[in-house]
């Protein structure tokens, strides 16, 4: 069977067996080995990738289920420089062996895409499906907090004192920092 998807911004078409798991497509066919295989039961989260912006355990998803989807793996996260989460995991010592790191980071990316200022509890819930046997999670939570703050600061610098347009009832109303 043929499957088409976008992986890290690149269109991919592959002829596959219907039973092929997404994790094996990514690792074995596309060479994206940052997606780790840990438990193969969807328990550990080492295989977490983003599918249409949602954190998904790729060992529990058939590649055919990703037909037409937009996938992001750890390899596609950084562009010219490391993503703020990648930087903060290093600075905050949120990794030791690194095996869980890609899944932890991608689960955190999904969280921060929907919640720019998560609480400690919200971060812990977002990474709940990812196991780490080395760090004890404190530094991982701290790294997500640091990255979130950096990302909020970047957004603030980008927009300065502008307030984004407010849309109510289909009409676009623009306000300014001065309230006008």
What does this structure look like?
With 180 residues, the chain is an alpha+beta fold. It has 2 domains: 1-76, Roll (Ubiquitin-like (UB roll)), CATH 3.10.20; 78-160, [2Fe-2S]-binding domain (DNA polymerase, domain 1, Orthogonal Bundle). Helices cover 35% and strands 16% of the residues. It has helices at 22-29, 74-77, 84-91, 101-114, 120-126, 138-159, and strands at residues 2-7, 10-15, 48-51, 54-57, 70-72, 166-168, 171-173. Strands 2-1-5-3-4 form a 5-stranded mixed sheet. β3 (48-51) and β4 (54-57) form a beta hairpin. The radius of gyration is 18 Å and the shape is globular. It starts with a strand and ends in a 7-residue tail after the last strand.
Main traits of this protein?
180 residues; alpha+beta; Ubiquitin-like (UB roll); DNA polymerase, domain 1; 5-stranded mixed β-sheet; two-stranded antiparallel sheet
């Amino acid at each position: 069977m043929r499957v088409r998807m976008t992986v890290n911004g690149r269109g991919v078409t592959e002829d596959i067996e219907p039973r092929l798991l997404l994790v094996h497509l990514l690792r074995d066919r596309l060479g994206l080995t940052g997606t780790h295989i840990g438990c193969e039961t969807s328990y550990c989260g080492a295989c977490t990738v983003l599918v249409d912006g949602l954190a998904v355990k790729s060992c529990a998803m058939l590649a055919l289920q990703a037909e037409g989807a937009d996938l992001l793996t750890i390899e596609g996260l950084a562009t010219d420089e490391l993503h703020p989460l990648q930087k903060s995991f290093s600075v905050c010592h949120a990794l030791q062996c690194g095996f869980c790191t890609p899944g932890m980071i991608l689960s955190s990316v999904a969280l921060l895409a929907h919640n720019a200022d998560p609480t400690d509890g919200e971060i812990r819930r977002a990474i709940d499906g990812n196991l780490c046997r080395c760090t004890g999670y404190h530094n991982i939570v701290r790294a997500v907090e640091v990255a979130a703050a950096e990302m909020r600061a970047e957004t603030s610098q980008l927009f300065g004192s502008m307030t984004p347009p407010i849309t109510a009832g289909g009409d676009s109303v623009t306000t300014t920092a001065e309230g006008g």
